[in-house]
Design a protein that fits this description.
- The protein is built from eleven helices and no strands.
- It folds into two domains: 71 residues, no CATH class; 222 residues, MetI-like (MetI-like fold).
- Helix 4 packs across helix 7, helix 5 packs across helix 7 and helix 6 packs across helix 9.
- It is globular.
- With 335 residues, it is mainly alpha-helical.
């Protein structure tokens, strides 16, 4: 397993480099000019100096190399300096946003807690809801619980999150007035009342994403459980006198989790990308809204960095899923 992990980490390096090159070239071909928003009163020679300061005067391959060095070498040094108080990154050029003229990673770090609070909480809640529903629905196939669970899952998976979010706002914010319709990103938890307000403003965006995630994962869990419940080893275990609880929760569940692990692991980066719409609906000042704002402003360094972070998450969680395969099923060998 250690050899496989090291081999996959080594393989991830050229993979990420290729992904970063593709993202960079695609964004370079996109129309638009970051200097288009500069007032017409600015002289042409000043515009040209601003263009060179933004790195637009260099050839494409030079711009790409500088971005790679800044992202993989300078930014980790900035993190080390922040954690340990060192000065490794002092004076080095960082990836700057064309829109705000400030380091891109500083903005990402500022927005990340909001996304983790809403998106991370919703995904954890969705998984915790989906797994027991999928397990019990498969064990009680065609029961009333299974029929209701199937209906709710189909609705949750089919209805888009922007419709669900607006519907909850109309019902619980406009008509009932129970929850705030806009997420206050400046709110800080200092006492019990502020903690209650934080929970109230998180309920609707978290439930919208949790319903969507739980609907998908529960269907995979149910299908995987049904496939394993009909296997010969289950009948053999029952014939040997093992209890039904042991058969289902130990033998069947462990084998059924193998394909579900892939869905859960690869769903993490998808949730970060899919939260763009939900963050727009509830005005959550997170990474999703940051990406939309950067696209509208033609802020290529910001768009490139966020897109690459999403790709990096996919590679990392794909590796985590493969490692979990070996933990769940000892028959899998990576030699």
């Amino acid at each position: 397993m250690l050899t496989f992990t090291i081999r996959r980490l080594v393989l991830a390096v050229p993979t990420l480099l290729f992904i970063s090159l593709v993202i960079f070239m695609l964004l370079q071909l996109a129309p638009g000019d970051p200097m288009a928003q500069v007032p017409l009163t600015v002289p042409p020679e000043v515009k040209e100096k601003m263009r060179e300061a933004l790195g637009l005067g260099a050839p494409v391959h030079v711009q790409f190399f500088k971005w790679i060095v800044q992202f993989f070498w300078v930014e980790p040094q900035v993190l080390i300096d922040h954690l340990f108080g060192t000065t490794f990154s002092e004076g080095q050029l960082r990836v700057l946003s064309w829109q705000t003229r400030s380091p891109v990673m500083d903005i990402v770090v500022q927005r990340l807690p909001q996304t983790l609070w809403v998106v991370g909480m919703s995904y954890v809640l969705g998984v915790l809801i989906a797994l027991p529903i999928g397990i019990y629905s498969a064990y009680r196939q065609y029961s009333a619980f299974d029929q209701i669970g199937t209906f709710v899952s189909m609705v949750g998976f089919s209805v888009p999150t922007f419709f669900t979010g607006v519907l909850l706002i109309v019902i619980f914010s406009v008509n009932l007035g129970w929850f705030p319709s806009i997420y206050d990103t400046t709110h800080k938890v200092t006492d019990w009342d502020s903690f209650v307000f934080q929970l109230r403003q998180m309920i609707m965006p978290v439930m919208v994403l949790a319903l969507y995630n739980a609907a998908q994962i529960s269907r995979f869990m149910r299908a995987s459980m049904l496939d394993n419940l009909n296997q010969d080893y289950v009948r053999t275990a029952r014939a040997k006198g093992l209890g039904e609880k042991t058969v289902v929760l130990v033998h069947v569940l462990r084998n059924s989790m193998i394909p579900v692990v892939t869905v859960i692991a690869l769903g993490v980066p998808q949730v970060f990308g899919g939260a763009i719409i939900t963050e727009q609906v509830f005005k959550v000042n997170g990474l999703g809204q940051l990406l939309i704002t950067a696209i509208e402003a033609n802020d290529l360094p910001m768009v490139q960095t966020l897109t690459f972070i999403f790709a990096l998450l996919i590679v990392i969680f794909n590796l985590i899923a493969d490692i979990l395969y070996g933990i769940l099923d000892p028959r899998i060998r990576y030699d």
